[in-house]
Design brief:
It is a single chain. By secondary structure, the protein is mainly alpha-helical. The chain has one domain. α1 packs antiparallel against α2. The longest helix is centred in the C-terminal third of the chain and has 40 residues. The protein is rod-shaped, with a radius of gyration of 18 Å. The protein starts with 9 loop residues before the first helix and ends with a helix. The relative contact order is 0.18.
């Protein structure tokens, strides 16, 4: 497992995942607003789909944060062993 800051490392991949999922959350939240305010009669299905995307994005951020936390702990353990 590559945990450093190089391309393909856990830190790099998880940080990119958090960024991507955060953007998904932002877009889904905007879609929920648009579906419920602009076209309330047509927006029920669109709002549901947007809410699913919103939840997926939230879970993606949480999972990538756990990857970062694990990589941080592993790096800390390696540093403790080295010292």
């Amino acid at each position: 497992m590559n945990i450093g800051s190089t391309s393909g490392s856990s830190f790099t991949i998880a940080a990119a995942g958090i960024q991507q999922n955060s953007e998904q959350v932002k877009q889904a939240a905007q879609q929920v607003v648009e579906a419920t305010t602009t076209r309330p009669t047509q927006g029920a299905v669109e709002a549901t789909e947007a809410l699913v995307k919103l939840k997926e994005g939230e879970q993606g951020v949480a999972l990538n944060a756990k990857v970062l936390q694990s990589a941080d702990q592993q790096l800390g353990t390696l540093l403790d062993v080295k010292a």
